[in-house]
Amino acid sequence: MRKGTKIIKTIACLAGCTLISSACAPTLTSCARGEEALTFDDHVHIWSEWTTTVAPTCEQVGEETRVCLADGTHIQTREIPPRHEYGKDNACTVCGAALNYTRGLDCKLDESGSYYVVTGMGTCVDKEIVLPYYVDGLPIAAIGEGAFFGADIEDIILPETLRHIKSSAFYRCEKLTSLDIPDDVLNIDDEAFKGCKSVKSVTFGSSLNAIGKSAFADCFAIESAIMPDGVQSIGDYAFNFCTSLGYVKIGRETDYIGQYAFANCYNLSHVRFANGADWTISKNSTMTNSRILSISDTATNARHISSQFCECFWRRNDD
Length: 319
Ligand SMILES: [Zn+2]
Ligand SMILES: [Zn+2]
Fold this sequence. Notes:
Shape: globular
Bound molecules: zinc ion
Helix content: under 10%
Radius of gyration: 20 Å
Number of helices: 2
C-alpha cells in the first residue's frame, strides 16, 4: 500500500536537509517537507518495519514511523502520500481523481483473458514509471518475464491490482532506488530484482508467499529485508551479495530457506525469526543439523544464516 514516490521524497529530502545540530549524536536533521531523519555516528540503524500511525485518505497525507531495534530512542517518521481507490477507468472511485499513469508501455492480455501483463517499456522513455491499474477494464495483475530487464528507470509505482512479478522482470534496473511491492503480490519469481544495485529500501507486500531464486541477489544497497509472516519460501541465493543488508526478519510461516540465500551478506548483523523455529539445516543428504533458532539472539542467527550454515538448505521442523 506504500508508494515509491514517498521514499524518493525522503531520499531527496535527506540530501537537502538543514543540519540543526552537529555537536553530539544523535544528529537531528529536518527539512522543509517536514520529514525528519536521525543519523548516528556510533551504529548502523536496525530499522523495524514501518507502522502506519495516520492512514492516508484521498485528500490527506498519512504518516508512518519506525523504530531502531538497536536503540529504541531512534525513531523515523515519514509521510504517506494521499491514497486513492482506483477503479476500472483508472480514476478514483471516491474522489474522481484520474491516475496520471505512464503512456506507451507494452501490455498483453493474459491467455486466461482475465487480466493484463506488462511486457516492456514499449515507446516509453520516462525515468519515473506509474503503471495503470486497469487496461480496457481489466486489471494489470502481472509484470512479465524480463519486462523491464536493464531498463534505465529511476522509480516505479506498481498498481494495487498486481499479483505476480515474473522472472527477471526488473533484472539490473541499476538506477531504481526503492521498491514498494503492493500488498496483493503473491509471488516474486527468480532473479526478479537481481542486480538492482541502487535499491536501498524494499517494502514487501503483506500477501507475499514466495521469493524466487536470486530474486534480490546483487542488490548491494538494500539495508533491511523485513519479510511478512506469510512468506513460505525464500529461494536459493535470494539475497546473495546484499552486502549492505544489516537486518532480516524471517516471517512466522517461512518453512524453507534455500542454499546461499543470505551468503556474502557481510554486514548482516541481526536476523530475527518471528517464531523461535526449530530448523533442520542440511548441506546434502549425509549432513543434517537440527537447531532451535532464537528470537532474541539475533546476532547468532545472523552468523548462522549468512556464514556458518549459509551453504545449507534450511527446512523448518513441524511445531
Ligand atoms: Zn539506531
Ligand atoms: Zn481519491
